């Protein structure tokens, strides 16, 4: 949340170790969303209504500029879940260090219709035009994912609505749901829950461990979310990010009139002993500004502008042709910690390979696994090989491949971690993440890509942020000064690097 000039990040944290357990609400504050001050935990198990755990939730700013937190408390060894609240002990403290959990908790207890062990993660509240507050809480019933709605006049007494805000059969438990409006024009954020806007409902699917979103309308009279026609409302739907990205939270930032989303990325080396050796597990990704694409069919995301302040040494390339099977190294920066923006162009779409109709039911990442960066195509694969060793034994390529479909062209964007490390661990998670990019190639014959590289993280933004993919990787050779960055073209059709701007990145300041 943004409150009185400071951004506040609350996050699930184990103060006793680098594996999951003993979860508290850790708390950090910032002036710019980039440099942070860690302060003492805000919420931790201490009362009967949360003695077995203080799990996720959200902050709301009430009228009179008063912040309040709603969170899930675990009340017994069976993981029975209730919804509690906390308020600042001293609202004049700019850091809001201390939080109080009043004795009239819990505010919401699951009734007999609710799965009490899958009932968590209350959203930021919004006020309807009837003056009543609303929240949704993630749950499941008979494999149907639920966004259960509650209403309140005074934020203390909450009543469950007769119907969920939305539900979808066969999707399993919904975690960390989010629901927010987006403007029909421009990139500014919106904090008004009226029918004049489009709405976004995001859900983190416990079964797949991916986050999905649907765009639609909010019927304020019936308190129902209605996905737009063609907006797929299931596991085959749109994702905010097609990689290591989970449990994002959005908030409206009044200081810059924007909607910001921020997500967590898990480790991919899986084993607890790896986390113990690091001394930490899980990271926050770079905060992203989010808005509705002019088509109205999807969201667009872009790293917040404050990140640019970390850019230092810069190199540039322009009008560099890459013939078939050619690569060039991008030198003059620190490839292990860099920000890269590149625009590729091509003279013709004639060499695009046909899209196999047998792939129609496959996920994009399945096709990326079949058609990797070293499998020569017509138009593509081309892109950037990040966190690469000198001879490419290790690298995480982020690339495009263009297919000719029946009526148009399909653009596949991949971030392939399968060769990201020589470290051998059978449990390591190294998938070929991928998504499609909705662009009109016939009109532009261009594709842009921005990549943020930070040692074990590769965050990629295709076509100005239409398709985003995050990979967590752990190279053994391509680390620190031994990391390299290459632009490559493994298609038969020549491509041109119209522009490439790359920056070394300073470290953010913690404390």
TrEMBL record:
Matches recorded under Gene3D superfamilies: Exo-inulinase, domain 1, Glycosyl hydrolase domain, family 43
Glycosyl hydrolase family 32 C-terminal domain span: 306-504
Domain Glycosyl hydrolase family 32 N-terminal as annotated: residue spans: 1-303
Domain of life: Eukaryota
Matches recorded under InterPro entries: ConA-like_dom_sf, Fructan_Metab_Enzymes, Glyco_hydro_32, Glyco_hydro_32_C, Glyco_hydro_32_N, Glyco_hydro_beta-prop_sf
Family statement: Belongs to the glycosyl hydrolase 32 family.
Protein name in the entry: Beta-fructofuranosidase
Organism: Anisodus tanguticus
């Amino acid at each position: 949340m943004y409150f009185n000039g400071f951004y506040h990040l609350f996050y699930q944290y184990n103060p006793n170790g680098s594996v999951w357990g003993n979860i508290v609400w850790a708390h950090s504050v910032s002036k710019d969303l980039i440099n942070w001050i860690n302060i003492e935990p805000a919420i931790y198990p201490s009362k009967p209504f949360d003695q077995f755990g203080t799990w996720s939730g959200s902050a709301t700013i009430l009228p009179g500029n008063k912040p309040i937190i709603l969170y899930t408390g675990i009340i017994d060894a069976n993981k029975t879940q209730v919804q509690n609240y906390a308020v600042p002990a001293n609202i004049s403290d700019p850091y809001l260090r201390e939080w109080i959990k009043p004795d009239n908790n819990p505010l919401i207890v699951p009734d007999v219709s609710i799965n009490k062990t899958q009932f968590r993660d209350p959203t930021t509240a919004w006020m309807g035009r009837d003056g009543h507050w609303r929240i949704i809480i993630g749950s499941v019933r008979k494999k149907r994912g639920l966004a259960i709605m509650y209403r309140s006049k005074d934020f203390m007494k909450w009543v469950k609505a007769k119907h969920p805000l939305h539900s979808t059969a066969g999707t399993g438990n919904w975690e960390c749901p989010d629901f927010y409006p987006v403007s029909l024009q421009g990139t500014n954020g919106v904090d008004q829950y009226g029918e004049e806007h489009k709405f976004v409902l995001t859900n983190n699917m416990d079964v797949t461990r991916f986050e999905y979103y649907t765009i639609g309308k909010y019927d304020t009279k019936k308190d129902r979310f209605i996905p737009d026609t063609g907006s797929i409302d299931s596991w085959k739907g749109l994702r905010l990010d097609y990689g290591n990205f989970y449990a994002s939270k959005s908030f409206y930032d009044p200081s810059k009139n924007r909607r910001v989303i921020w997500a967590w990325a898990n480790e991919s080396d899986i084993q607890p002993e790896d986390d113990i050796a690091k001394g930490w597990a899980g990271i926050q990704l770079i905060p992203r500004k989010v808005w509705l694409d002019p088509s109205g069919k999807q969201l667009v995301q872009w790293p917040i502008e404050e990140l640019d302040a970390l850019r230092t040494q810069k190199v540039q390339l322009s009008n560099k042709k890459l013939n078939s099977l050619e690569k060039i190294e991008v030198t003059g920066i620190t490839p292990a910690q860099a920000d890269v923006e590149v625009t590729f162009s091509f003279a013709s779409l004639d060499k695009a390979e046909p899209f196999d109709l047998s792939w129609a039911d496959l996920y994009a990442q399945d096709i990326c696994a079949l058609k990797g960066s070293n499998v020569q195509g017509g138009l593509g694969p081309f892109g950037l090989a990040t966190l690469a060793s000198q001879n490419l034994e290790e690298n995480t390529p982020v690339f495009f491949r263009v297919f000719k479909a029946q009526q148009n062209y399909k653009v596949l964007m991949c971030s392939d971690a399968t060769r990201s490390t020589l470290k051998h661990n059978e449990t390591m998670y190294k998938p070929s993440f991928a998504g499609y990019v909705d662009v009109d190639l016939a009109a532009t014959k261009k594709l842009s890509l921005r990549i943020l590289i930070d040692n074990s993280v590769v965050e990629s933004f295709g076509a100005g942020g239409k398709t985003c993919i995050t990979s967590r990787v752990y190279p053994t050779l391509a680390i620190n000064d031994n990391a390299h960055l290459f632009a490559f073209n493994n298609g038969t059709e020549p491509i041109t690097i119209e522009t490439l701007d790359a920056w070394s990145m300073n470290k953010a300041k913690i404390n």
